[in-house]
């Protein structure tokens, strides 16, 4: 299983927007790779439509979105029509056709011995293909989420996590429970008090020596 800090496996794959090499496709952006057990599944239909509707929010953050299912491209294209009709918005990002299971295997979502015709597999056989990977511009994994088939994913939460990750990378801060952009943050434990005084000359709130609270450093 891949975890936070691991290198995101690179791969070549066919998608609804042509062939890609994953790392080249990411470039200097962030990326969200989210997988689906099979096309034409009900919960995933709602997820793909919702992601299409909020894609501008990811665009604003320089985050690329890409979906994955083991179905072939022509199934993806037909499913896209269903998604547009039932959810109001068709996918406006690429969908990987992982018909040889190579991406799913590389990311630890399917066992190495899986083979055969992907369209003959049931969604239940691919139940582990309900993952979200957030990948940074350094091509390292920053977040892994795994959901059951019966629970739709909360993509607003993924946006919130990306906001936190970007803030932490730029300002060496962490975010507390239930944090929302604009709220107070915590100075990273990797930052000494001497370094913190340079960055925050007005000081910080310190309910405990290991909890140093400052306003969100993002410029207004």
Keywords:
single chain, 220 residues, alpha+beta, Glutaredoxin, Antioxidant, Horf6, Chain A, domain 2, 5-stranded mixed sheet, 4-stranded antiparallel sheet, 11 strands, 22% strand
In short:
The protein has 220 residues and is of the alpha+beta class. It is 31% helix and 22% strand. Strand 6 and strand 7 form a beta hairpin.
Blueprint of the fold:
Blueprint: E1 12-15, E2 18-21, H1 22-26, E3 30-35, H2 42-60, E4 63-69, H3 73-87, E5 95-97, H4 102-106, E6 131-135, E7 141-146, H5 155-171, E8 173-174, E9 185-187, H6 193-199, E10 205-208, E11 211-214
CATH superfamily of the largest domain: Glutaredoxin
Main beta sheet:
5 strands, mixed
**H/E element string?**
EEHEHEHEHEEHEEHEE
The low-confidence parts are: none
Helix percentage: 25-40%
CATH C-level label of the largest domain:
Alpha Beta
CATH topology of the largest domain: Glutaredoxin
Radius of gyration: 20 Å
**Euclidean distance between termini CA atoms:** 39 Å
Strand % is 15-25%
How many alpha or pi helices?
6
Overall strand count: 11
In total, how many domains does the architecture comprise?
2
**CATH architecture designation of the largest domain:** 3-Layer(aba) Sandwich
Average of the residue pLDDT scores: 97
Overall 3D shape: elongated
Oligomer status: single chain
Describe what you observe in this structure.
The chain has 6 helices and 11 strands. The chain is of the alpha+beta class. The chain has 2 domains: 12-152, Glutaredoxin; 172-214, Antioxidant, Horf6, Chain A, domain2 (Antioxidant, Horf6, Chain A, domain 2). β10 and β11 (211-214) form a beta hairpin. α2 (42-60) packs across α3. The longest helix has 19 residues, at 42-60. The mean pLDDT is 97.
